[in-house]
Predict the 3D structure of the following.
Amino acid sequence: MTHTNKLKYIPLGGLGEVGKNLGLLEYNGQAIMIDCGLMFPGSDMPGIDLVIPDITYLKENPDLLQAIFITHGHEDHIGALPFVLSQIKAPVYATKLTIGFIKNKFKRNRGLRPKNVEMNTIADGDSITVGPFRIEPFHVSHSIPDAVGMIIHTPVGVVVHTGEYKFDEHPHSGLTIDEDRLRAIGDTGALLLLSDSTNAERFGSTPSEKTIYDNIDEIFSQAKGRIITATFASNIYRVQLLADIAMAHNRKVAFVGRSLLDNTRIACEMGYLNIPDGIILPLDKISHLPDSQVSIICTGTQGERNSALVRMANEEHSQIRISQSDTIIISATTIPGNEEFAHRTLDNLFRLGADVIYQALKPVHVSGHASREGQKKMLSLIKPKYFIPIQGEYRMMALHAQLGEEMGISKENIFVIENGQTMEFGPNEAIIGDEVQAGHVFVDGLSVGDVGNVVLRDRNSLSRDGFVTCVVAVDEHTGDLIDGPDLVSRGFVYVKDNEALLDDAADAVAKTLTKLPHNAHPDTISSMIHNTLARFFRTHAHRQPMIFPVVLEV
């Protein structure tokens, strides 16, 4: 790593994708990290539990990272911390509630519990100096309390990282974005803006959280049975709104889902969630009440495997059975990539006869991200010399870049880049730097990074075409066939209806093995079996199952 007097921006996650947010700012061999999130697996990642950023660049430069700054407590911003901090050491800076969520994550994480992590609480208006950087957090309105953006003073100019934000005139917390402060930064001269692109496809302004109160209140007033509302576990403002409405309709509240139980407990203890005693009941206690007095808040808006709502929809939940008298509210939008899982859950809930209400039918959710008008407002306040859209799929970042041009930023000063592509900035120049390794690291159970693209291709192949195992026994001295071949198939064909096909395949293998040279090595035998079966099934079944030869020497 060569030290230069250039400021480097190095995105390792969150660009060209939704989730897995992680960016580095580096100057003369010292760097700070902004956010450290995860992403949930897509339908093309069978068996994968979580996806985290590749931090090879940091592991190859172990003295580089000086600190980690977190903008807020959503999983796509804190979820990878246990994995990253088990490999590299750095102090963490975050707001009070976010620190609470992070500590709980360390406690809950199986097998990866980083020790002796220095945790520092920050707040709006603070000033923290780390190496050549001076960081000033500023409050932003989002769907979770204690969210901040970062004003970062560097030797070559000021960088503004918006975090995730919207301009909310009536925020639940009562705290609006300090526009005068941001305008002053813009008037002084900001070098670079790194700004959230999530809602770049949405015209207009993002409504306030309070605008959905009346719609959900109306649903509560009309429902005769239980009301089950699914929302994000960390959307504390939404939980408060739902609890307030439940109380107004004389309903008790039960939380379902471990992450929701943890987050609401922490938020209550820290004073971010205010629900009177006696309103929240354990699930086993609330089940004894009349349905008209029950409100359940749960996780599972994205159709996540094993989440509370998905288990209810699949009739697998140990305590809750969906009935036709239930009203189910999905108070969230689907994250890109999760559509298949979310829609399957909706279908299953409809099959069970429940009254299901979601955003396409009635406004029961508002985003925590600025839409196009809000993004334009941020651009107009900061007036950056250079602009990099972040946090969004590529089309979102490209549309955000177009807004930058509309707001007067020179096209040559706007950079739509993806993970691993770096930028270098001086006071009066911006150049594309060297690429660094970036991408997906897959978490499968307790295994981190052991599952790569080759294994995923194998899993997808198995899911599409199944496999055939062929077992033969040969004389260990002569290599002559003693027993077999015996074929076992799973996920390829239904055996009872295809016995003739498998018998013919076994005959083809047996015929091939008669041509073996004397004392053939087991690897040679295995290769001949594989090639024979591959040709046979391609010709006679037009399929390509995975083939596993097993050669036993006896």
Residues 396 and 475 are 63 Å apart (CA to CA).
